[in-house]
Please model this.
Amino acid sequence: MNMQELNLSYILRLFGKHTPYMLIILISSYFLIPFVYSLDKVYVLDTAIVYSKLASEPHSKNLLNKATVEALLGNKDFATSLSLSSGNSDNISKFKPVYEDGSKHLSRVRFYGDNIDDILNTSSLVINELRKIEKNNINSTLQLYKRQVELNNSIINDLEEDANKASLYYVIDDGNVNPVLLEDDLYKRLAIDLEIGNLQYEYNLNSYKEISYVSPINKSSITQVLPGKLVHIGSSILAALLYFLIVINYHYSKLRK
Model:
């Protein structure tokens, strides 16, 4: 046999003959490579942030929106503030906003790194930092609602006491009917108006839903992207191909003799 006979047909016959051995190498490599060679692992958490809600439209303008949230997520100073909050910058995983023309009510964000616990910790720090920033803007409004409800309740109590006194005066002095009854009705109308106002303030107060993730974050939310199954499969295929190349080289060397 000479070098002219090392053609495609000959190589295909070699391939068929050594296919069982290549399969053994492929399968063995798939399971052995992770133990023989440790590749750096990369974990990813893809999630989305849901913005806050507030029934009062004028005051809802103080809430964080898509543009603001994504600008903060992409800001280096924001990442620095997380390091200060955690007290250990080494435990902060990387993260970045995922810009897309999707929902105006969501901001997608990706956390990634080589440690699952760091990713979980960072995701918690991010949402807490966003809440802190927003609370600085909206807290005065929420406190205003609370103070107004407390003030209205105090006035209602005073009106009820005055109304009881007016009713008592009416009972004692049966001769002055109309003035006492008109005064009593006025107290009641004022109290009703204040109670209706309180319902609106309490509705606005209870309507506030703070910024949060679209779903709870836990370890099951995090996926491993590297090395991953595809890397192991690719490495196993390369090992099988390397074996076949060695076989071809062996036969090529024999033909040259």
